[in-house]
Amino acid sequence: MDHNPSSSRTDRKTIERNRRNQMKVLYSKLNSLVPHQNSREVTSLTDQLDEAANYIKKLQTSLERMKEKKDSLMGIERSSNNAGGMMISSNSTSCGGVAAGVKSPQIEIHIIGSALEIVLITGLDFQFMFNETIRVLHEEGADIINASFSVVEDSVFHTIHSKTYIIRLKSQHWVLEQLRG
User: Fold this and answer.
1) Is the pLDDT of residue 91 over 50?
2) Looking at the predicted structure, is the pLDDT value of residue 67 above 70?
């Protein structure tokens, strides 16, 4: 079998050119994913790679901060274990569906004519109760006039003012029944 050195060299050049073109396309894709402060400035390939690496590190740091914030809002502590990983533990243990050591939500309902005022007091772990209360009011045909909240230490005070024309609002228990059911 006879190998032509000229043909072999041409094949290697073609393979290398294709490899370089493919790398150029991949670098371009990577570069397009990184936000640039000055897009008019032409940067070298090494600077582009360095910028991409720094951007990825910045995203990782930001993601870790967001995870820590989420965990703190949900009442979860993160601590390092000996293996260099993360151990996650809850601040309280569950007891009958309500976390022990965490305030149970309290709800006060005041009806004056067709006006309805709901005061919902929750711990930081029960933010979903506000959304659920709004959802129930909408399902029952109430018009939300105003909704606000205040945070005091580990308690969140939600106040919802609504107007309704539904007769069953004469009973204060309907909101509680809807939230439980």
Assistant:
1) no
2) yes
Q: Which two tokens stand for residue 44?
A: 């070298």
The Cα–Cα gap between 123 and 104 comes to 7
> What is the reported pLDDT for 179?
57
Quick one: pLDDT band at residue 21, thresholds 50, 70, 90?
very high
Q: What is the DSSP string of 25-54?
A: HHHHHHHHHS--S-TTS---HHHHHHHHHH
Question: Residue 156: enclosing H or E segment and its boundaries?
Answer: strand 155-163
Give residue 23's pLDDT: 93
What's the chain's length in residues? Answer: 181
**Mean pLDDT value across the chain:** 75
Please name the residues in contact with 6: beta carbons below 8 A apart, sequence gap of 6 or more.
none
**Does residue 155 come out as left (phi exceeding 0), alpha (psi in the -120 to 50 range) or beta?**
beta
Task: Enter the tokens of residue 162.
Answer: 């609504």
Torsion of CA 41, 34, 48, 64, to 10 degrees: 130
pLDDT at residue 157 greater than cutoff 80: yes
Residue where the block lists tokens 């909408």: 138
**Could you tell me which residues come within 8 angstroms of residue 8 by beta carbon, excluding any fewer than 6 positions away?**
none
Greatest extent of the chain over all pairs of C-alpha atoms, in Å: 102
Question: Taking Cα atoms as reference points, which of 118, 146, 145 lies closest to residue 132?
Answer: 118
